[in-house]
Fold each of these.
Amino acid sequence: MITPHDGALDYDTAKRLAVSADPGERRRVAGSAATRPELLYFLANDRSAEVRREIARNRATPRQADLLLVKDPDEEVRGSLAAKIAALAPTLAAAQLGQIERMTLEVLEALARDQATAVRQVVAETLKQQADAPPHIIQQLARDLELSVSGPVLRHSPLLTDQDLLEIIAGRPLDGQLVAIAERAGLSAAVCAAVASTESEAAVASLLGNESAQIREETLDRIIEMAPRHEPWHGPLVRRPHLPAGAAVRLAGFVAEQLVRVLESRPDLPLTVRSAVAEAVKARLPADPPDIGIETAADEASKERPMDRARRLQAEGTLDEDAVSAALTRGDRGLVLAALAVLSGYGLEDVDRVVAGQSPRGVTALCWKAGLSMRFCRQVQLRLATIPPTAVLNARNGTDYPMTETELKWQLEFFGLKA
């Protein structure tokens, strides 16, 4: 069998093989760098997709033929063309472009708009670290709705300025796109603050894990204020380089015991800070019991049934998301279940049945009915219903519930509950 990349052919032989009934012979002509441009252009219309793929990959193919292949019905043809053309991007940086360069840019622009995600992804992966890539194409790719396209550019492109990134964040992108921004090397303080303000659990966790991110102390303080509701932040916070003394002490007040031990063993923290951490841990322990015959308000509260306590808090106007979050943080499962029942209007046994079912959609619908935010709902899925992290539902656009109201009501009705 003749392979497509055998040695150079003389013109007459190449011309004969270009019209051969054997696609293997036509592929040989299509894949040769020595084939004359007019034959390559002719083969750009070949009935065989494999032949057209060879034309798309061939660097000797005239740009006029590449313009034809931009509209090829075969996705692999366009993908092969994308890999070749995107690699030529540095040649398009000149102030004055010749005819060939203008056609190359036209091909690249078309591929960056291709209907197939895989084709746009090839362009993005090729251009993601190129300082000489066409800026307007980088801007377009960075705002692509598909994470596989926008992610590489958001994570790596040196052409994206802080202003670009701030505008993208202000547009409320998906969590995955925020994560890509948060993982950029040397992320500026202003962009760090913008990422933190989104309260995206995944993005802030990535930001905290990015040792090169320039997180100002005031930004870190705001993150720590929100952290009790976001367990995935605790580990990265405790291990954050150059952790301020005050931050370390505050973290000791709510992170898990194993993370407290990490804080206490950090050699970069001064001894005085580690001592303060130890004191903060002591403050978390139950106080000594009062004298016999004297009962405190806390003792009275501990005697209340969870449902009675939830109803009392509601009557006092304090049964809100912060109260439920605090109960979840300290492991008061009974109060969390009771609070969900009171806030949703369902019976405690109904709430327990939904949670025990470990259905991400069911638990999400329950949180919606209870008037809780989708961000907090993720914590309920993880920590109350013990749903695996890979299965939990995440907020859409950073804050929105990922299901329509009709879908949420259907989930509740599925559990026999009135929506």
Amino acid sequence: MVLVDSCGWLEFFTDGPLGSSYEEELSSKPEELLVPSIVLYEVFKFLLRTSGEETAIRCTAHMTQCCVVDLDSTLALESAEISIVNNLAMADAIVYATSRRYNASLITSDTDLKDLPGVRFVG
């Protein structure tokens, strides 16, 4: 399993300078990709603001073909602990906790996550 965080999806959808670095993972089989609901939120919000509703809906519809992971009470508490231990913001902690729960590789360009175990940093 692979989890690409919000910055990776946005690079991919907007043809950003690192977009091609995420292409292999995001072109994989949807059942092999985890998408935390907070990532869906962040991507939709960014695209809605910058690219309009049609693009935001089209892109996030693609994401919902993957394994969307909802934030349940157990994952919320695990995320809070991870946030404190690793000094992470809420969304980063939820993304990282989700990757740990499912033993998934986390692929990101977020420098706050780059040195954590199980993270592949795309710089």
